[in-house]
Automatic annotation (TrEMBL), chain A:
It holds the Pfam family P-II. The modification O-UMP-tyrosine is found at residue 51. This is Transcriptional regulator. The keyword Transcription applies.
From TrEMBL, chain B:
This is Ammonium transporter. Residues 14-388 form the Ammonium transporter AmtB-like domain. It comes from Halarcobacter anaerophilus. GO terms for cellular component: membrane. SUPFAM superfamilies: Ammonium transporter. It is found in: Membrane. The lineage of its organism: Bacteria, Pseudomonadati, Campylobacterota, Epsilonproteobacteria, Campylobacterales.
């Protein structure tokens, strides 16, 4: 099992969610996050003075999938979240040791 | 009921109504300031605004009114209405000052200063200009025309604020040692907008009520003209700032545009009853321009004013008073020189007394929050109650 964490532009959330659901991903966890990558935020203007907003608003989506579904899921997210412009985000994949469904106490890949 | 009684009743009603509009400026200042500061200081800003209304008004009831006008009294309306109208102005003077020192000034020393300015400093200015005139016959006699207080209210508050900023200093980190300015953006733009429009509406009472009577055809016309001109100056202040912001930065900064409207409103306040219906367009526009350049000018001087009160109230209070001398010069009662003289006398008196009093208060009860309190936000230390407890603190 793997955890896929995707940091995406907030306005792409709906697209990514729909694409994931269409491809059989049953659940996901979403959070509001702030961060920056290589472009180092952007500058805004307040009362005639420019300032840098370091931490931009992003959305983090977390999904847990079985090993064989990782590549397909990554492709779905990339396709849905891509605008081609700077700040589209990043995806991280990490191994997951155990998953427990609390209601049924199922464990492992059947709980995913 | 005879005609005289009807007039008495109408003027009393008019005065109480316009006084109520002026009190709408209490939430106006409160919301404007709450939106322009960081979330960690919002409860404190609101507390200060509430405290100012209460403390300043009571100080004026007990001492200030008598210093300015002598005993309670009015021939043309209920003397209580006449008092209430004057009382409604007092809090505004200190509001102007408190907004500019928010995010670092503590509540108790501000309250002490509020008592002094509401009981003594502002009433003295009123005495010289609208009241008993203790300077009459001396070389310092103030003859300026100032209908609703471009100088008496707005630049009085502005000079007190300048003194306070010099005593208190800038917010921590605002002007870094290595030079430049660190921008501290507003936390809630909808509140800034609500506050600015509440002030705008309050201004109709502020200027309209200052005509003093509405119970004759001529007086009713003057009141309506005054309110029309007041509104026009606000409109043109907003428009000129929007144009300037776009020309200079290709962006429409709504906080500046609203400050521009308020700048126009301050500028018209000295003589809204004297102009034709077109002159306020120019007066308000110049007021807006003063705001745009004033904000960066005071930043260059490293005078930290989170709400732009120096540009809105001080610069435009001066401009509005002088504008009467330029545009409404009737050669006899109103002269440019007389207007300038009034501005200068009030400036010296208010700035010097405020500075000395704030300096002394600061020695006894430090005006400024300590470094840790300021970083954590004054809400935790001063109010024990954060305005937005469920939000992560911004910045």
């Amino acid at each position: 099992m793997k955890k896929i964490e995707a940091i995406i532009k907030p306005f792409k959330l709906e697209d990514v969610k729909e694409a994931l659901v269409e491809n059989g991903i049953a659940g996901m966890t979403v959070s509001d996050v702030k961060g920056y990558g290589r472009q180092q935020g952007h500058s805004e203007l307040y009362r005639g003075a420019e300032y840098v907003v370091d931490f931009l608003a992003k959305i983090k989506i977390e999904v847990i999938v079985n090993d064989e579904d990782v590549d397909a899921t990554l492709n779905v997210i990339v396709e849905a979240a891509k605008t081609g412009k700077i700040g589209d985000g990043k995806i991280f994949v990490t191994p997951v040791e155990e998953v427990v469904r609390i209601r049924t106490e199922q464990r492992g890949s059947e709980a995913v | 009921m005879d005609l005289q009684s009807i007039n008495y009743v109408i003027d009393t009603f008019f005065t109480i109504f316009t006084m109520t509009l002026i009190i709408f400026m209490v939430p106006g200042f409160a919301m404007l300031e709450a939106g322009l500061v960081r979330t960690k200081n919002v409860s404190t800003v609101l507390m200060v605004n509430t405290m100012i209304y209460a403390v300043a008004s009571l100080a004026f009831l007990l001492i200030g009114y008598h210093l300015a006008f002598g005993d309670f009294g009015s021939e043309t309306m209920s003397k209580w209405a006449a008092f209430l109208f004057q009382m409604a102005f007092v809090g505004k003077v200190i509001n102007i000052m408190s907004g500019g020192v928010s995010e670092r000034a503590k509540i108790i020393p501000l309250a002490v200063f509020t008592v002094i300015i509401g009981a003594l400093i502002y009433p003295t200015v009123v005495n010289w200009s609208w009241g008993n005139d203790m300077l009459e016959g001396t070389i310092l006699d103030i003859t300026m025309y100032d209908l609703a207080g471009s100088t008496v209210i707005h630049s009085t508050g502005g000079w007190a604020l300048l003194a306070a900023i010099l005593v208190i200093g800038a917010r921590k980190g605002r002007y870094p040692k290595e030079g430049g300015i660190r921008v501290i953006p507003a936390s809630n733009i909808p509140l800034v907008t609500l506050g600015a429009f509440l002030l705008w509406i309050g201004w109709f009472g502020f200027n309209g009520g200052s005509v003093g009577t509405i119970s004759s055809k001529e007086a009713a016309n003057t009141v309506a003209l005054t309110i029309l001109n007041t509104n026009t100056a606000g409109l043109s202040g907003a428009i000129i700032v929007a144009i300037l912001m776009y020309l200079m930065y290709k962006k429409f900064d709504i906080t500046m545009i609203l400050n521009g409207a308020l700048g126009g409103l301050v500028a018209i306040t000295a003589g809204p009853d004297l102009y034709n219906i077109y002159t306020p367009i120019l007066i308000g526009a110049i007021g807006g321009v003063l705001v745009v350049f004033g904000v960066s000018f005071f930043d260059k001087l490293r005078l930290d004013d989170p709400v732009g009160a120096l540009s809105v109230h001080l610069l435009n209070g001066i401009w509005g008073t002088i504008a009467v001398g330029i545009f409404a010069n009737n050669g006899e009662d109103i002269t440019l020189l007389g207007q300038i003289k009034g501005v200068i006398i009030v400036a010296i008196f208010v700035f010097v007394t405020s500075y000395i009093i704030l300096y002394i208060i600061n020695k006894v009860i430090p005006l400024r929050a300590n470094k840790d309190e300021e970083m954590e936000g004054l809400d935790v230390d001063e109010c024990g109650l954060e305005a937005y407890p469920e939000f992560k603190r911004a910045f």
